[in-house]
Design brief:
Radius of gyration of chain A: 14 Å
Number of strands of chain B: 7
Number of helices of chain A: 5
Largest sheet of chain B: 5 strands, mixed
Radius of gyration of chain B: 20 Å
Largest sheet of chain A: 5 strands, parallel
Order of helices and strands of chain B: HHEHEEHEEHHEE
Strand order of the largest sheet of chain B: 2-4-5-7-6
CATH topology of chain A: Rossmann fold
CATH architecture of the largest domain in chain B: 2-Layer Sandwich
Order of helices and strands of chain A: EHEHEHEHEH
CATH class of the largest domain in chain B: Alpha Beta
Distance between the termini of chain B: 21 Å
Number of domains of chain B: 2
Strand content of chain B: 15-25%
Shape of chain A: globular
Largest interface: A-B, 13 and 14 residues
Shape of chain B: globular
CATH topology of the largest domain in chain B: Heat Shock Protein 90
Structural class of chain A: alpha/beta
CATH architecture of chain A: 3-Layer(aba) Sandwich
Oligomer: heterodimer
Low-confidence stretches of chain A: none
Helix content of chain B: 40-55%
Number of strands of chain A: 5
Number of domains of chain A: 1
CATH class of chain A: Alpha Beta
Mean pLDDT of chain A: 88
Strand order of the largest sheet of chain A: 2-1-3-4-5
Number of helices of chain B: 6
Helix content of chain A: 25-40%
CATH superfamily of chain A: Response regulator
Mean pLDDT of chain B: 90
Chain lengths: 147, 225
């Protein structure tokens, strides 16, 4: 089994700090779900579509939730979102955008593209953990996914 | 805005926006460090960590203040009739124990209700702070009508300021008082100026050390029409 099998949370985040904080926040809230992190939009699409470095990934296993940063090198979050939501085989994957700062234009664009949630990363670590816990609670435990 | 100002504003916005991520990381790592290692630190270690955390928070607040100013500058202002008397009375209840503030009947104006409300809120909050150590604090709001504009005034009998620094008063992060007298980042009056400018108006202030201050802003008549 590779370390990207049975992934339930796909974290798409270029910042090492934010990625570490996110993983820490999941652990702190006792989520043991498998999380895999990719660093930009190209890697995110490769992962989901089992291409490139992820060519041997099992295409029947889709993450339960994809946490997506917006501002990333190569392919940004909006492009990833547009691509995922335009394909029948990937549009059911819940995508929660997590971004640095609140910008109305981004929020509107994300919802136009079919995002499932939009969260501004809170500044305080306690609030950040809480936001992550809420995301985990909803998308990993409450929300029913297509089997 | 002209070309150079617009470019400067765009730059301010981009820089402040991009600075949030690393500052948030400092705040986050300091919190994590505190959570995991504070038991192993002595008092001095914990004091130093608290300072790192506090200064990072302050940096974030400053960045957010710059972003806020930049947003106001680019905000498309609504142009609605404003019942200034009731607006000011409502704000006065929020920021002060009401008896402290005497509000005259004010001429109506027009503009963006949310933004003009912030103007009043900042001016009244400042007046409250300026008079907090005053045994008989008084704050009064009144207006004067001129041919082409209405001038609104907030006067107090608080700690005042030295007129030699009046130019710095409305500049962002410039303060004429120490934090213990007047806490805050020093962005409130910059916000006031930015909002009033967006409405085609002007702001100014008069004061004397330990002898009160009056802050005034003028809104052109017919701005809404």
């Amino acid at each position: 089994m590779t370390d990207y099998d049975d992934v339930e949370i796909l974290l798409v985040e270029d910042s090492d700090s934010d990625a570490e904080m996110t993983m820490r926040a999941f652990k702190r809230s006792n989520f043991v779900n498998r999380l895999y992190r990719v660093r930009d939009g190209v890697e995110a699409l490769d992962f989901v579509m089992c291409r490139g470095a992820f060519a041997d990934r099992d295409a029947n296993q889709m993450p339960k939730v994809l946490l997506l940063d917006l501002k990333m090198p190569r392919l940004n979050g909006l492009d990833v979102l547009r691509e995922l939501k335009s394909r029948p085989e990937t549009k059911a994957i819940p995508v929660v955008v997590m971004t640095s700062s609140h910008q109305d234009r981004d929020i509107e664009q994300c919802y136009q593209l079919g995002v499932n949630g939009y969260v501004t990363k809170p500044v305080q670590f306690d609030s950040f953990s809480e936001a992550i816990a809420n995301i985990g609670m909803y998308w990993l435990t409450v929300n029913e996914v297509k089997r | 805005m002209n070309g150079a100002a617009a470019e400067l504003d765009r730059l301010t916005y981009a820089v402040s926006h991009d600075l949030r991520a690393p500052v948030r990381a400092v705040i986050g790592y300091a919190a994590v460090f505190d959570e995991d290692y504070s038991a192993q630190l002595d008092d001095e270690g914990r004091r130093l960590l608290a300072i790192i955390s506090r200064e990072a928070q302050r940096t974030m607040s400053m960045i957010d203040a710059l972003l806020d100013l930049s947003r106001i500058g680019r905000h498309v202002t609504a142009d609605k009739p404003l019942d200034m008397t009731s607006m000011v009375r409502a704000v006065a209840i929020e920021v002060a124990s009401e008896p402290l503030v005497t509000v005259d009947v004010l001429p109506a104006s027009s503009g963006d209700p949310d933004l003009i409300r912030r103007v009043w809120s900042n001016l009244l909050a400042n007046a409250v702070t300026a008079t907090k150590s005053q045994p008989a604090a008084r704050i009064r709001v009144w207006a004067t009508q001129e041919s082409d504009r209405i001038v609104y005034h907030v006067g107090d009998n608080g700690i005042g300021f030295d007129m030699s620094g009046v130019d710095r008063l409305f500049a962002v992060f410039q303060k004429l008082h120490h934090d213990r007298e007047f806490p805050g980042l020093g962005s409130g009056l910059a916000v006031v100026k930015q909002i009033v400018s967006r409405h085609g108006g002007a702001v100014w202030a008069e004061g004397r050390v330990e002898d009160g201050a009056t802050f005034s802003f003028a809104l052109p008549i017919g701005h809404a029409q």
